[in-house]
Amino acid sequence: MNISFQEKSIWVALVVTILIFGSYFTFAFSAFYEGISDPNADYTKLSALIPLFIGAIVLISVILGFLHIFLAPAFNKATQIGEDERDKLIALKATRISYIILVFGIWVTGVNMLWLPPLVMLNILAFFFFLAEIVGWSKQLFYYRRGV
């Protein structure tokens, strides 16, 4: 099976992002659920999630950087050429569904602004950013396999 550099790059980003942010959001939302289910909860304890979130972003950046450094020499010619028209079309088509998910997440966050603390809303918004990226990358992979 012949896979382009852009497709392998998307696969790497998809897997790494799902593993790291998936574990972060599992931990964060379980902490939020415990805090919300307890009426006497102290939300200041949840501020410990901020360094964890920043750490997840740094970890993803470092891992993706190293993996792309090792991936690029195998596709030396493809990395020098860059994206062609097909790659740009696939990215554009996948952006449409990502945008819809992101706008929905902004609306959900705005509606919950009245009931939830800011840290929870920030994580809900970050989750929708994460979900929009995952769906966008998945749609790109679908279009690469489909041959758009």
In short:
This protein has 148 residues and is an all-alpha fold. Helix content is 80%, strand content 0%.
Task: Tally the structural domains.
Answer: 1
From the N-terminal CA to the C-terminal CA, the straight-line distance is: 17 Å
Class from secondary-structure proportions = mainly alpha
SSE order, one letter for each helix or strand = HHHHH
Low-confidence stretches: none
- Indicate the mean pLDDT: 84
The gross shape turns out to be flat
Task: Estimate percent helicity.
Answer: over 70%
Describe the overall structure:
With 148 residues, the chain is mainly alpha-helical. It has one domain. It is built from five helices and no strands. It has helices spanning 5-37, 49-71, 76-81, 85-111, 118-146. The radius of gyration is 18 Å and the shape is flat.
Indicate the topology:
Elements: H1 5-37, H2 49-71, H3 76-81, H4 85-111, H5 118-146
Tags for this model:
single chain; 148 residues; mainly alpha; 5 helices; flat
